[in-house]
Design a protein that fits this description.
There is one protein chain. With 580 residues, this protein is mainly alpha-helical. The chain has three domains: 396 residues, Up-down Bundle (Growth Hormone, Chain: A), CATH 1.20.1250; 26 residues, no CATH class; 81 residues, no CATH class. It has 27 helices and three strands. The chain has a three-stranded antiparallel β-sheet. It is elongated, with a radius of gyration of 26 Å.
Amino acid sequence: MEGGVHPGTDTSAFRECFSLAWKNPYILRLAFSAGIGGLLFGYDTGVISGALLYIRDDFKSVDRQIVLQESIVSMAVAGAIVGAAIGGWLNDLYGRRSALLIADFLFFIGAVVMASAPGPALLIIGRVFVGLGVGMASMTSPLYISEASPAKIRGALVSTNAFLITGGQFLSYLINLAFTKAPGTWRWMLGVAGLPALVQFFLMMFLPESPRWLYRKGREEEAKAILSRIYPADQVETEILALKESVEAEINEKGSAEKISITKLLKTKTIRRGLLAGVGLQIFQQFVGINTVMYYSPTIVQLAGFASNQTALLLSLVTAGLNALGSVVSIYFVDRTGRKKLLLISLFGVIISLGLLSAVFHETTSHSPAVSSVETSHFGNYTCPDYGTAGNGAGAWDCMKCLKASSPDCGFCASVNDKLLPGACLVSNDATKGMCKKEHRLWYTRGCPSKYGWLALIGLALYIIFFSPGMGSVPWIVNSEIYPLRFRGICGGIAATGNWISNLIVAQSFLSLTQAIGTSWTFLLFGLISIVALLFVLICVPETKGLPIEEVEKMLEMRSLHFRFWEKNKSSYHEKEQSA
């Protein structure tokens, strides 16, 4: 059933994955072709973080209004919410392959519109189109891979989708760096995003539909032909029998995917419990703060005290690289250690990392360099108006207070001798920025000089190292295998929609939160949410390692709480294997 569970899965799934791929490269071809949907997801997440630095330079209205910055980032997420919701319906009605082709088309259109946008309005429209494509691809790619994978290596192959997400993020930072000196900087960064969509569109034209979807639609001979290319000859009949049993169960329940209602889903115990675990994981994946790091990584680096755009992008490249490395670690451990253990280890490390980041940013903001009247007067009439009218209170001004001035916006020009010494508080415009840099000083508008900046980078690196192998990959794996076949498309769409709605909330609120309560308290808030997430995983998420998808359904039917995650699964399927 669904490929079966074989002895030794715990210790050899990773090797088995590469062994099978070597013997039957067709499996890997299916996984990586569909996984380019993950690459699109990752590229868009990463590219906007660097492009935003230069969009702010080109469009002054964007630089002045945090809401516009958040909208440029989050409108892609809003589009993805719609895309994920429509994607569930498209997957069940027209198939996984067709949904991916539509996603590629929308993504390509969006990339062209963004690259040619004359102003923020059209740029935001392009972001919505890209979001529609990313939303569809985000829930379809792991579904397609899961349904075209043997159960014993399903987790490892679905993890390739997560690897391509993080690989796309890493690639986006490389592209960002490559175009920092090119005319039109951000236009190239966003326009290149259309290439992976074209590549996937071409590859998917020559790949088959999901065999399980085909069988579900009565196209049995096509399904058998594809399964015969995926499984050894002696396992094909077992797979066909499993699919036949699953479809017959659907007919008995009179619950075809086209007639599914939310009420029916919630009334079905296994679906309700599966949705609780699947949707809950997707929501917590976002609310522990990952996409604040990926969307705003260069901005966070600048908040930590690194002034240069190029430096911020280069240092952000390190976090993107660690993210990609973490997903490789996930491929190795997910079928060996198990989904639940990996999630708990991941969240424990995330909590520690967010605590460190909160402490570092608290120290950074409370020990920023003072504003010197001597240094400020050196620049003549360019003094920040708020500082100039502060009178006796000007002696209490430091860099952070200078950057919070808003009538007009002000910037901090660091001391020429040492960036940690008292500097000048000046009006923020191109003229003062040029004057400051002409004297070989550093110019700050988004963060202040700090001796704790490197600690913030360490905190970010630790966060990514712990997040990526567990909370980065496992929610997608669990959602690809926790729902019965007849509900998988619609439930996967619900879970992906939950992920994107949470993503939208976090992306649209992060900069506003840092401005309202400070960066330190914002990361502390994410840390508290991570503690809640850890308790949720401990109680509500089942261990699905190595189980056929039908067995997952039986496990959900038996109980709803899953405290004993350290015990090996003892399913009826395993018992059948042992008695056989």
